[in-house]
Design brief:
11 helices, three-stranded parallel sheet, Leucine-rich repeat, LRR (right-handed beta-alpha superhelix), alpha/beta
């Protein structure tokens, strides 16, 4: 038997042990280990300081702050750290670790300690999320932190006051716009504010280099926003969410670089007027209820001008289909993707000004339309949907979402036609993919589906979803299918078998999405 001393593996391990020990000895020679009580200091490597600073910038914020206490070098790197992101996640807090009030107080104290040990110089990105109810103490914290970090050279600033439910006009943080007149307005590129008041005035404002502006739940008036926009000539992206003081949005023609605009939930908004020539994507969400005939004047007026660059539009509003057919067809000739969520439609025949000659993707969702309760509007509603198809000769994909209830005498089986006559309309030569979600046995949907099959020679796939369009229990724990949908499903399936299946060409595939019969929720 081989002795332990003769075992080559043991000799190899011993050799490694000696090597490690030699390295450790060498390292100790670079450290002051005198017994005089002096602080231990490491001489560091021969890497340039800018490389060390770059390496340290990748450390998590909490670790970087801790490393600052190890040596003077690390402290110097920390005090010039360019990217600062403060949230409970970056600060190492776990969910439900402690009571909320204690956690919030401790969080603010830690952020305050970290920022006061930072010089504030060299900060390029500040993302600051504040928790808890706004009060005088919170205001003092915020004022102090922003004074430290917002200096010339900053490029991205994000301030999130998360507990906006407790904010009011009398108790809301006023963002100190004076900070943006100390030279930082010439370097800041992205500004993201949530849950505060923002009052830019003459002589104050982040204008020179601003490319992205996002305001959410921010108190800013129309003229203040107009002043800011007219002085932000480099702006490329504009987002306004739930800004309740804005009555009108006017986007000047001077914003030549502006390409993306999103407006959502501004409850007092009455008009959007844009003269910017190069917007390529426009998204507008308006919180409509189900309107009545006398409520048409509550609409937000949209004046988007004429834009050859517009490629994508998303509008969630009442009467949007009518608006698209009358206005957008002539003013947005190069539109490629159009998504419309309609809550109410005007009972008047739209006059087509032109056509969407380049439209490839059309998505329509309708909510609470009158044909759900008034059969006398059914012919008009069918005509309106067919008109949207007729206005899109190059259309390739059509998605229709119809969350409506079947009413009395609305089923195709309650008053079955002897035959479904062909509806006058165009031939959709490029249409290949059609999907109707929440398909029911209503006359309108059956007639529309048959019209598409009669007019689409190149159809490749027709999907009829007779569920509510949500995930199934094969994807999650349970299906999101309502009782009414489950009860209607057999009738919808019978309508497909009776009126639709025979019209599907052999070159096209019919997909029918049914409720899951095995789902325990049913």
């Amino acid at each position: 038997m081989m002795s332990p001393e003769q075992d080559p593996r043991r000799r190899q391990i011993q050799g490694r042990h000696v090597s490690v020990g030699s390295v450790a000895k060498l390292k100790r020679s670079q450290v002051d280990v005198s017994q005089t009580g002096k602080r231990l200091t490491y001489s560091g490597s021969s890497l340039p300081e800018d490389i060390w600073r770059h390496i340290c910038s990748f450390l998590p914020l909490k670790d970087a702050a801790r490393a600052a206490s190890v040596s003077h070098s690390f402290k110097r790197f920390w005090r010039c750290r360019p990217n600062l992101t403060f949230s409970k996640k970056t600060m190492g807090y776990k969910k439900n670790a402690r009571r909320r009030r204690i956690t919030t107080r401790d969080y603010n104290s830690r952020v305050d300690h970290i920022l006061r040990n930072h010089l504030g110089t060299g900060v390029k990105t500040l993302r600051l999320k504040l928790y808890g109810i706004y009060n005088a103490n919170t205001r003092n914290y915020l004022d102090s932190w922003l004074q430290i970090a917002v200096k010339p050279g900053i490029e991205e600033l994000s301030l999130i006051l998360s507990n906006i439910d407790h904010l009011s006009n009398e108790a809301i943080y006023e963002f100190p716009c004076s900070l943006l007149s100390n030279g930082s307005e010439n370097t800041i590129r992205e500004l993201d504010l949530l849950g505060c008041a923002f009052r830019p005035t003459v002589g104050i404002g982040c204008t020179g280099s601003l490319t992205s502006l996002c305001l959410s739940c921010v108190n800013i008036e129309s003229d203040e926003l107009g002043f800011l926009l007219s002085n932000s000539l480099a702006l490329e992206r504009l987002e306004l969410n739930d800004c309740s003081e804005i009555f009108s949005i006017k986007i000047p023609s001077l914003l030549q670089r502006l390409s993306y605009v999103m407006v959502s939930g501004c409850s007092m908004l009455q008009v959007i007027e844009s003269e910017a020539p190069n917007i390529s994507s426009f998204h507008f969400f308006h919180d409509d209820d189900v309107f009545h005939d006398d409520d048409v004047d509550q609409q937000v007026q949209l004046f988007l001008g004429e834009s050859l660059q517009m490629k994508e539009i998303f509008i969630s509003h009442s009467c949007v289909l009518h608006y698209a057919l009358v206005v957008l067809t002539s003013s947005m000739p190069n539109l490629e993707t159009l998504t419309m969520h309609s809550y109410y439609e005007m009972v008047s025949t739209p006059t087509l000004a032109s056509k969407f000659l380049h439209l490839k993707y059309l998505n329509i969702s309708v909510f609470g339309w009158k044909f759900a309760s008034a059969p006398r509007y059914a012919d008009y509603d069918l005509f309106l949907l067919v008109s949207c198809l007729d206005a899109s000769p190059c259309l390739e994909t059509f998605n229709l979402d119809v969350p409506m209830r079947r009413r009395e005498h609305d089923s195709i089986f309650e008053d079955p036609p002897s035959q479904l006559g062909r509806i006058p309309g165009q031939c959709y030569a490029n249409l290949r993919h059609v999907k109707i979600t929440k398909f029911r046995s209503t006359k309108l949907l059956v007639k529309l589906t048959c019209h598409i099959l009669d007019s689409t020679p190149s159809l490749e796939c027709l999907t009829l979803d007779i569920t509510d369009g949500g995930p199934t229990c094969s994807e999650i724990d349970r299906c999101f299918v309502g009782k009414e949908t489950f009860m209607e499903a057999p009738k919808a399936l019978a309508a497909i078998q009776t009126y639709v299946e025979g019209k599907v060409p052999s070159t096209a595939k019919l997909n029918v999405v049914e409720p899951c019969s095995r789902c325990p929720a049913l």
